[in-house]
Each structure stands twice: as C-alpha cells, then as structure tokens.
C-alpha cells in the first residue's frame, strides 16, 4: 500500500510591488516575471449584450413559464443545473479563450402575496415589479470583465440567472 504524500506547499504570493499592472512596461519584463493583470488594448471586453437574448430565451421556455412550485420544484432544480451548464457553454462560444466563467442559477418559491406595484430603478436585470433581484459586487477590471443577470417570475416561482466573465491575466 502506497503511503499518502502531502501536496507541496503553495508558492508564495508576489508582493504588490512585484506585480506589473502597466501595459506599457510589459515589453521590458523578463520572460520569467509574471504577466500583467490589466488587459492590453487588443484584449476585448466580454460583451454581456450578446448573452442577454440567450438568457431571456432560456427563461421563456415552457418548462419555466408554466412551472408551479408545489408541483415542479424538483424539475426546476434539475433544469437550473442544466441552464447553468448551457449558459457557460454559450459564454465560451461567444469568447472562447481568455476568460473564466461563472454562472449561478437559483430557483425558489415565490412568497405568497408578494405582488408589488412599485418599480425599481435597477437596470441590471429585466425583472418586473415584485421580482427578486440579483446583485454581485466585485473588485475587477471594468474594461474587460462583465456581469449579467436575468430574472423570471410567475405566481409561484422565481428563477434568477447570474453570469460572470472575468478576464484571466495570461
């Protein structure tokens, strides 16, 4: 029986002074130094507007729009997992390299009596009055990274899709 070996310790993190965040000095770096974490001008920003119609189409599918929580909760949970994988694949299709992708899909029962006539000034999702909202706060590069959320609701169900694209620095 082979003895279990512990993994090697992680490499120490570089100090903030050793990280190059300037794209102009990257040409003077040695090949052994770390790459810049800021996108160069030729790197494109992930365009969430290309993904939004796809999310809306997924949320407009009959298995979502006709769902009733008490009857379809298990099916919705399974469908949420499938939607998450489908969104990730679509993000890769839109921008095949240079990004890490995250997609979270949540399904929940809509609390009874939550119909609301108030409106929200939030423009990050297409949810109507009374719907749940999805927000994410991150420290990242607004010139390359993107976030998008869409929410669907009916009388008993709320489905939220949150998609994030974060540019990798190499």
TrEMBL record:
InterPro entries the record matches: Tctex-1-like, Tctex-1-like_sf
Superkingdom of origin: Eukaryota
Matching Pfam families: Tctex-1 (PF03645)
Listed transmembrane segments: none
Comp. bias intervals (Pro residues): 1-13
Biased composition (Low complexity): 14-41
Region of interest called Disordered, as start-end residue ranges on this chain: 1-48
CDD domains given in the database record: DLC-like_SF (cd21449)
Protein name per its UniProtKB record: Tctex-1 family protein
Higher taxonomy: Eukaryota, Fungi, Dikarya, Basidiomycota, Pucciniomycotina
């Amino acid at each position: 029986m082979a003895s279990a070996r512990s993994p090697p310790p992680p490499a120490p993190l570089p100090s903030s002074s050793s990280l190059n965040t300037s794209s102009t000095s990257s040409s003077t770096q040695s090949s052994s130094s770390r790459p810049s974490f800021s996108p160069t001008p030729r790197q494109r920003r992930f365009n969430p507007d290309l993904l939004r119609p796809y999310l809306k189409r997924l949320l407009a599918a009959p298995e979502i729009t006709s769902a009733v929580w008490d009857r379809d909760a298990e099916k919705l949970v399974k469908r949420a997992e499938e939607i998450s994988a489908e969104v990730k694949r679509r993000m890769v299709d839109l921008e095949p390299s240079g990004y890490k992708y995250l997609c979270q899909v949540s399904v929940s029962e809509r609390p009874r009596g939550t119909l609301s006539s108030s409106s929200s000034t939030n423009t990050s999702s297409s949810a109507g009055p009374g719907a749940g909202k999805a927000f994410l706060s991150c420290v990242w590069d607004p010139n390359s990274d993107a976030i998008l959320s869409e929410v669907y609701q009916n009388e008993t169900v709320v489905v939220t899709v949150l998609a994030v694209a974060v540019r990798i620095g190499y």
